């Protein structure tokens, strides 16, 4: 069986339970994002997979072979797992080419040069082959770091928030580059990040890590549309939670009768999570809602509305974001998620 | 925890053994001959030496503090002209071995000797330590607080005493202890100026008789006093945490009518610490140029350089091993080895030299009076400071670089020389260079341990001075300043940093 398998992986540092019974499967050539806020245990997870830490219990299997358990850990250099650290961590004393070729010690000089050239082309840095890392921009450095990790054709590539040090525009561009590069190399990869947009836009599958536990795994659309619990719903995207009760398959709430996205049982009561983009605001002098706040972002705006005693945050696109003080009617479009109490 | 490579561990353990065995042997021998050692120490002479030494240490420490502090304040906090130039001049005596300053004076004023001469010369030699430490602290304290105090009715002197001084006191205290240690272990200048302290007495006792018990017992007393001062230093250094960020905006006090007086004072200080002794040496060199045997000069120069290069390499290899062990493979044994290597920190060179004489003559006669023995002495003396210089660049190599290297299939030991050492290399070379330059200036241990046929600039200077042949000694002194002193000052990170900050 190809790919990576984490089985009940647990790691504690003293009393601190960093990871508890983590199960995760990454298939061959799959790109999985591990999404979690800081302190969720993302970095520890990567260090365990790379072989820098020993698990307290559980096991890690790569291509069907056990490489870590609580007794023995295969040393990092024998795992064939590449890493791309947060700060790129290029070897400062080596040129770009030498950095990329670092892990190719087993090849002949000719093969090594050919492989390095392939990767230089792939990451579009052929002109920088003899440059020292301190002359590279942040985005270039990250591309070299990725090329360096991919060069020995590892079984798995681990990326630790590789875009977090970059500015917003560069980040967006580099993300797409990285996705294309990984696909071109047919690499199996894990990305850990705290940025939900990054995880959702890049990965084939997303695993949500919270307090050292994997709480949901699924495709980006699954994760976004059907968060497994309220915590994930509020973590992913801006959700408003209101009370609701299931009556005849519908969710009865203060904002009207809404269609459930998930399966519900009549008679249950609980919380309904409504995303900002589900709200539609209709300007109406007699409306029950009043705009109490507005944050303008250019491409859209977040509008805070007080209606029927509930404060909602709506994402309003288009040039006509309602102004503070305006009266509006609040509609909820599309289906929403219900979480029984 | 990762285990260090066998070579690193072997080098580390042997360096630690080399550092402590001779001193341990010296103590052991004294315990064996306890009665005689006690009788030796209970003479009035010991008390006299103690008094002389203590007087000099206290006097030098106080005047160095006053001079160094004044130079620091005037160059960083007042609006005098040429502040940057005076800053360089205040640090420059670091480049001149104190016995060279002493030679400069004694060759100019033959009556210049005893307590007063030693006091003056050592004040000039050590005030740069205070100057650099206080400067570093001053550029990191907020001058706004001083202005606030002025608006609240405090006069200039009150501000200096109640606001400025408390902020730089930790740095000043640390540097004062450094000055005290320097004075305690100083041999060359004091011997040239014929003032009887422990170091000179140890040397004379060693030279004057075949019975070395007397020299050894005095050496042990000096050792104990040094340990006491080091203990103080450790205690204070722990409390001292300077902010690493220099303030960019610094207000300077307007000295107004006192400016000429300040410039005059700074000029006189530099004239006395640098101008006069150097001018004297230049004049003597010119006078003596015909009488100096060029062959001897070249021979001494080559001897010095050979020893310095060899010692630099030896210290560099052992130092790198210990630094690697303590920084990259921190385990209990590694920590122990590092502590042991530090134990000889600030130990008077004359004591280390004497301990090696004892050890060499009695335990390892096959290397006694060989170059190897001398190299061991240099290793003991200069390993601690080199360790600090080498440890920093190694510690600065990011761990994630090692992680990346290992994930790319390079085992830990190989990562050491493919990644860690190449990156730290420039820093390691600088540390080795500094050690080699320090070796060039070393006098007492070289005098005690050198092979009979080996001569260095320092030993030639010493014997010419002993014969009162100043014209012959002067060229050696100047050469020492040029090839050892100035480059060492240029490599001194603390000095470079402080001087760049004076300017801003």
Features:
A: 341 residues; 6-stranded mixed β-sheet; 5-stranded antiparallel β-sheet; 8 helices; 20 strands; B: 504 residues
Task: Write up what this structure looks like.
The complex is a heterodimer of chains A (341) and B (504). Chain A has helices at residues 42-50, 96-101, 109-122, 138-150, 168-185, 196-202, 220-225, 230-235, and strands at 4-13, 16-26, 31-35, 57-62, 65-69, 81-84, 156-160, 189-193, 205-210, 213-218, 239-247, 250-253, 256-258, 269-275, 279-283, 289-296, 300-307, 310-317, 327-332, 337-340. Chain A has 341 residues and is α+β, with helices and mostly antiparallel strands. Chain A has eight helices and 20 strands. Chain A starts with a strand and ends with a strand. The model of chain B has no long low-confidence stretch (mean pLDDT 86). Chain B has helices at residues 6-32, 34-41, 44-77, 83-91, 98-108, 114-138, 144-151, 156-185, 188-192, 198-208, 213-239, 259-288, 294-328, 332-343, 349-362, 371-396, 399-407, 412-441, 444-449, 457-466, 470-491, 493-503. Helices cover 79% and strands 0% of the residues of chain B. The chains are: A alpha+beta (341), B mainly alpha (504). Chain A binds chain B through residues 50-52, 75-83, 85-87, 89, 91-93, 102-103, 105-106, 145, 148-149, 151-152, 154, 158, and chain B through 398, 400-401, 403-412, 418-419, 422-423, 425.
């Amino acid at each position: 069986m190809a790919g990576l398998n984490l089985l009940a992986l647990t790691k504690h540092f003293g009393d601190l339970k960093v990871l508890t019974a983590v199960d995760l499967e990454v298939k061959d050539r799959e790109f999985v994002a591990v999404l979690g806020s800081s302190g969720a245990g993302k970095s520890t997870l990567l260090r365990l997979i790379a072989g820098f830490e020993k698990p307290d219990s559980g096991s890690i299997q790569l291509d069907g072979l056990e490489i870590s358990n609580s007794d023995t850990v295969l040393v990092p250099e024998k795992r064939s797992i590449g890493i791309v650290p947060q700060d790129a961590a290029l070897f400062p004393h080596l040129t770009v080419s030498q950095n990329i070729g670092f892990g190719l010690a087993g090849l002949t000089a000719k093969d090594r040069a050919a492989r390095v050239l392939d990767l230089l082309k792939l990451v579009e840095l052929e002109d920088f082959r003899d440059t020292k890392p301190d002359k590279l921009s942040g985005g270039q450095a990250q591309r070299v770091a990725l090329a360096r990790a991919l060069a020995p054709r590892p079984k798995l590539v681990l990326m630790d928030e590789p875009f977090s040090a970059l500015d917003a525009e560069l980040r967006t561009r580099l993300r797409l580059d990285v996705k294309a590069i990984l696909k071109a190399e047919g690499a199996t990869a894990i990305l850990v990040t705290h940025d939900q947009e990054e995880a959702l836009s890049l990965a084939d599958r997303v695993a949500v890590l919270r307090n050292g536990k994997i709480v949901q795994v699924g495709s980006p659309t699954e994760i976004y549309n059907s968060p497994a619990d309220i915590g994930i719903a509020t973590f992913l995207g801006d959700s408003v939670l209101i009370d609701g009760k299931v009556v005849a398959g519908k969710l009865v709430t203060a904002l009207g009768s809404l269609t459930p996205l998930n399966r519900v049982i009549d008679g249950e009561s609980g919380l309904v999570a409504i995303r900002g983009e589900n709200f539609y605001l209709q300007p109406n002098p007699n409306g029950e809602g009043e705009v109490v706040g507005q944050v303008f972002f250019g491409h859209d705006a977040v509008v805070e509305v007080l209606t029927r005693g509930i404060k909602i945050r709506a994402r309003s696109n288009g040039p006509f974001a309602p102004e503070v003080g305006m009266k509006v009617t609040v509609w909820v479009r599309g289906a929403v998620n219900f979480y029984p109490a | 925890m990762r285990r260090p490579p066998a070579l690193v561990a072997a080098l580390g353990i042997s360096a630690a053994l080399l550092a402590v065995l001779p001193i341990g042997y010296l103590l052991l021998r004294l315990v064996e001959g306890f009665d005689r050692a006690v009788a030796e120490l209970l003479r009035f002479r010991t008390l006299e030496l103690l008094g002389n030494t203590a007087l000099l240490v206290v006097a030098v420490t106080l005047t160095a503090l006053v001079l160094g502090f004044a130079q620091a304040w005037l160059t960083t906090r007042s609006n005098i002209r040429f502040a940057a130039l005076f800053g360089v001049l205040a640090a420059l005596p670091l480049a001149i071995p104190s016995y060279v300053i002493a030679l400069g004076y004694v060759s100019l004023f033959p009556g210049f000797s005893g307590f007063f001469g030693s006091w003056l010369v050592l004040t000039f030699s050590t005030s740069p330590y205070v100057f650099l430490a206080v400067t570093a602290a001053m550029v990191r304290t907020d001058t706004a607080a001083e202005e606030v105090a002025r608006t609240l009715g405090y006069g200039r002197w009150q501000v200096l005493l109640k606001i400025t001084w408390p902020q730089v006191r930790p740095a000043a205290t640390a540097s004062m202890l450094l000055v005290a240690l320097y004075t305690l272990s100083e041999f060359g200048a004091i011997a040239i100026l014929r003032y009887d302290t422990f170091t000179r007495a140890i040397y004379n006792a060693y030279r004057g008789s075949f019975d070395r018990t007397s020299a050894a017992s005095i050496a042990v007393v000096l050792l104990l006093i040094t340990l006491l001062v080091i203990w103080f230093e450790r205690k204070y250094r722990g409390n001292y945490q300077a902010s690493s960020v220099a303030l960019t905006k610094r207000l300077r006090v307007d000295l107004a009518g006192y400016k000429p007086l300040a410039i005059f004072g700074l000029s006189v200080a530099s004239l006395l610490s640098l101008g006069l002794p150097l001018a004297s040496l230049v004049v003597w060199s010119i006078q003596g140029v015909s009488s100096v045997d060029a062959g001897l000069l070249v021979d001494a120069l080559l001897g010095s350089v050979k020893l310095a290069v060899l010692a630099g390499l030896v210290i560099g290899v052992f130092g790198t091993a210990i630094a690697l062990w303590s920084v990259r493979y921190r385990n209990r044994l590694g920590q122990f080895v590092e502590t042991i290597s530090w134990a000889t920190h600030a130990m008077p060179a004359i004591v280390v030299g004497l301990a090696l004489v004892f050890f060499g003559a009695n335990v390892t006669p096959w290397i006694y009076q060989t170059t190897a023995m001398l190299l061991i002495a240099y290793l003991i003396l200069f390993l601690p400071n080199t360790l600090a210089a080498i440890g920093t660049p190694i510690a600065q190599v990011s761990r994630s670089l090692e992680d990346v290297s290992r994930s790319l299939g390079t085992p830990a030991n190989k990562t050491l020389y493919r990644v860690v050492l190449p990156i730290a290399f420039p820093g390691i070379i600088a540390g080795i260079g500094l050690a080699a330059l320090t070796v060039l200036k070393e006098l007492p241990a070289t005098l005690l341990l050198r092979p009979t046929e080996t001569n260095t600039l320092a030993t030639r200077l010493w014997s010419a001075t002993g014969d009162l042949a100043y014209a012959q000694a002067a060229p050696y002194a100047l050469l020492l300043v040029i090839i050892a002193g100035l480059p060492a000052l240029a490599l001194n990170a603390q000095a470079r940093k402080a001087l760049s900050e004076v300017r801003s």
